[in-house]
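Re-running DNA replication protein DnaC to confirm reproducibility after the cluster update. Everything else is unchanged from the original entry.
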Amino acid sequence: MRGNRKIDRDARRANFRDESQLKDFGFSFNRSVDRARVFDLASGHFLSGAKDVLMCGPLGTGKSHVAQAIGHAVIRIGAVVFYQSIFDVVQDFLHDEAMGGEEKVLTKYLKPDLLIIDDMGIKQLPKRSGEYLFEIIMRRHEVRSVMMTTNRPLEDWGKLIGDVPGASAILDWFMQSAEIMKIAGRSYRLKNAEKSSKGTRDAPRWPLFKRPVTKRSQMSRVAFCDCERMEKKS
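Result of re-run:
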């Protein structure tokens, strides 16, 4: 185990959105998640073979938590990790291209032992997104690992990046060595919202001040990622 200072410094450089850890993940709540498989990924063995990982499933089911927790785990065994949402990856390229530093930003995404690209499918991506993502995937292929999360079927990726042929090229490279992990079940965010709402309703009505209980809007249903169809195609 490496020194805590070094681990903390590398975790900060990894740019994680959250301090997610596997010990905090609700495996008992979401039984669709293969615990043994997650911990095997957290051991870092897949990095030695430059294997890629695709986590797919509905919004709110814990994909980002698991991906970042695996990132934290492999940092503790010496791996260099960088985390970024797909939207921010593209924004990096757009900004640096305008400033004439495209190669510099590309290097940032090629160097880490593990690159985690999160939130594929959350929103429509800017023009030329496919070009940037293809360059990353192609250059890292069989050299260093990429982990991606998505809530959309693979056939939707062309629409998301506005480039159907580009999406096909990306997936052709990525799926050659990608391990697919399905994460389904109920939304953690919905669970927490229900718990919070229940806590408000059950709160004692004293002392003198009453806070109005706001009715939470129901979360819209989200489309499930058809992972079984993905596995057949890959």
